[in-house]
Specification:
The protein has 17 helices and 17 strands. With about 525 residues, the protein is α/β, with parallel strands linked by helices. The strands form six sheets. A four-stranded parallel sheet has the order 4-3-9-10.
């Protein structure tokens, strides 16, 4: 059973306030999020929406709710048909291919699979039935095989966005068509053009308009009354405004309790868009940075705030993740020899082992901060920089203490403390989607591989330079030794002297590399035969 619902507050675009979360059905959540139009590789704006609502999904599960999460695919529309014609591919083959590519990206970002991922082409009967209901209820009209929604018939049109009917003016967000009763009327069904993919309907062959598909699919999987509808902030008007109008026209009892919207990802304070040529695909980023570094970056600002893309922030996210995972790996390694000393916090003599006061303070701070920030409209950015860092510092300092000779009881207390603090960190990482599926050693190896890729080096190159630097130091050629260290640091490789050995780890590039453009990233990609 879910925890008390009044604990969780989310910003509701409909009320313009943070509302206490109360579900339609106690203990259960219905959530619909608008997915992608599948005609190309998805960009990091799509990634932000997916990650934002994945965190919401994970948090609702953490609170104990049974969640039905629906995220759709638009697999037929004007963009898909246009792209398919350009490259000579069947539209449904094209969209199917990019639906699968999107799923690959989501898996890399560790986004949980939604409960349902419906496609438009799999829901044609439901869409046509809803259009028929809207016509029968007097909210739509037909013209030469097209069906238009009559916005003048919708008394509450604009209640989500605050815009009036005239804001939906033709030529900007809706097509110019002199056959419309009002220029702001929008298509529910589009008559087929010659040679175009189409489906039979009572109004003739054609295909759905964009807005109706989400109303029909959400009603099919969640009914007309459900809890959360989400998407990017650019969908508020006209898409979500039109969804409300047509859903209410089909069923007057239609009601969605909370409308949630994530902010844009910007490039130099401009929204990323294909028309400006300033967008980055998820693949472009994850070829150079680990997908979890991209996820960390996307969580580094509140989901409703605009987020400026920058190489320096990706560098910082990558380094922060490496540091967290290295600490957890070091903790695992240090605890391995003591695996049999404790069983669920009980020593071999049956005595309960208490954790240290410092460990308890760390755990309490992290737990309280987590609950406070997450229940206040998912304030993920604070979780990455606050008490989590305090827990990391506790582990690192305790690992040093564990190496020192101490009384048996003190040692057991420290071991139990490390276990509990590590467990608490992992709980937070899991809900943020940052707990890797792989072991820490493997994920650290992957992060190092991405750093080498950005540096244009193989690990053998780094190891050879380490050998050269060791020789230079023995020969007291400190200028060459420093030169090697500095040159590697400029490429994002940091050397660390540990006892008599030298090891390396990724670091933030010094100086931070010039901010990249999509074109620069393409130019920097190695030939296909050399890519990792």
């Amino acid at each position: 059973m879910a925890k008390e619902e009044e604990e969780f507050r989310i910003y509701n675009t409909l009320t313009k306030e943070k509302d206490a979360f109360k579900t339609v059905v106690p203990g259960k959540v219905g959530m619909y999020v608008c997915g992608v139009t599948a005609y190309d590789f998805s960009h990091i704006g799509h990634a932000r929406a997916a990650v934002s609502f994945d965190v919401l999904y994970r948090y609702l599960l953490h609170l104990g709710y049974e969640v039905t999460y629906v995220r759709n695919f638009t697999d037929i529309d004007d963009k898909i048909i246009r792209r398919a014609n350009e490259i000579g591919e069947d539209p449904l083959s094209l969209s199917s291919r990019f639906c699968n590519e999107y799923k690959t990206d989501m898996a890399a970002l560790q986004c949980l699979d939604p409960t349902h991922e419906p496609k438009v082409t799999e829901n044609m009967e439901q869409i046509k039935d809803m259009i028929s209901q809207i016509i029968n209820n007097g909210f739509a009209y037909t013209v030469e095989g097209d069906v238009f929604f009559a916005v003048d018939k919708s008394p509450n049109y604009g209640k989500l966005s605050g815009q009036d009917v005239n804001s939906n003016r033709a030529g900007e967000r809706v097509a110019v068509d002199s056959r419309k009763q009002n220029p702001a009327d929008f298509a529910l069904w589009k008559a087929a053009k010659p040679g175009e993919k189409s489906w039979e309907s009572p109004w003739g062959p054609g295909r759905p308009g964009w807005h109706i598909e989400c109303s029909a699919m959400s009603a099919r999987y969640l009914t007309f009354k459900f809890d959360i509808h989400g998407g990017g902030i650019d969908l508020i008007f006209p898409h979500h405004e039109n969804e409300i109008a047509q859903s209410c026209a089909a069923c007057q009892e239609s009601n969605i309790s909370y409308w949630m919207h994530n902010g844009h990802v910007n490039n130099k304070n401009e929204k990323m868009s294909k028309s400006l040529g300033n967008f980055f695909t998820i693949r472009q980023i994850t070829e150079r940075y680990h997908p979890l570094a991209l996820r960390h970056f996307l969580l580094s600002a509140h989901y409703r705030s605009p987020l400026n893309y920058s190489v320096s922030q990706l560098e910082e996210a990558s380094e922060a993740l490496f540091s967290i995972y290295q600490t957890l790996q070091d903790c695992e390694d240090a605890l391995l020899p003591f695996e049999g000393s404790l069983n669920e916090g009980v020593g071999q003599n049956g005595k309960v082992i208490r954790i240290t006061s410092d460990a308890q303070i760390c755990i309490t701070k992290l737990r309280e901060e987590f609950e406070m920030k997450m229940k206040d409209d998912l304030q993920t950015a604070h979780l990455l920089t606050g008490a989590l860092q305090g827990c990391k510092k506790f582990i690192n300092s305790s690992l040093s203490s564990l190496k020192k000779k101490q009384q048996k009881q003190q040692q057991l207390s420290l071991i139990q403390s490390l276990r509990e603090v590590k467990k608490e960190i992992e709980t937070v990482l899991k809900i943020l989607g940052l707990l890797p599926h792989l072991g820490y050693a493997e994920i650290l190896k992957e992060l190092k591989g991405k750093a080498l890729n950005r540096a244009g080096m193989e690990e053998a190159d780094v190891l050879n330079l380490i050998k050269e630097r060791t020789t230079a130091r023995k020969e007291r050629n400190f200028s060459r030794s420093d030169e090697i260290r500095e040159d590697l640091a400029k490429k994002g490789i940091e050397l660390m002297d540990v006892g008599n050995d030298t090891v390396w780890k990724p670091c933030i590039v010094i100086p931070v590399v010039q901010e990249e453009t999509p074109e620069v990233i393409e130019q920097q990609k190695p030939p296909a035969s050399e890519s990792s």
